[in-house]
Design goal:
Number of helices: 4
Shape: globular
Structural class: mainly alpha
Number of strands: 0
Distance between the termini: 36 Å
Helix content: over 70%
Protein name: DUF6471 domain-containing protein
Number of domains: 1
InterPro entries: DUF6471 (IPR045526)
Strand content: under 5%
């Protein structure tokens, strides 16, 4: 493996667990509240964020979303506190 590829792999791996945690956090809060992607989409619209249920689903499944998206989803669902431990 060339040096550049090895460095990229080493840098990507530390974030993998955090990406899993962020995905699980959204899914956990959705389950707790009995919310599906359609309802989450509507709740995000109330915050001025216009994403279809399919777009949200793809972002969460792929674990490719920003911290801002994570916070917006949690806020839209009415999450007041989270435990990271």
């Amino acid at each position: 493996m060339n040096k550049l590829v090895k460095e990229h792999v080493e840098q990507a791996q530390p974030y993998e667990a955090w990406e899993d945690t962020a995905k699980e956090l959204i899914e956990l809060e959705m389950r707790r509240r009995g919310i599906g992607y359609k309802q989450l989409s509507r709740q995000l619209e109330e915050l001025g964020i216009h994403e279809s249920p399919d777009q949200i689903n793809r972002k969460v499944i792929r674990k490719r979303f920003s911290a801002a998206f994570l916070v917006a989803c949690l806020r839209a669902m009415g999450v007041e506190n989270i435990s990271l431990i």
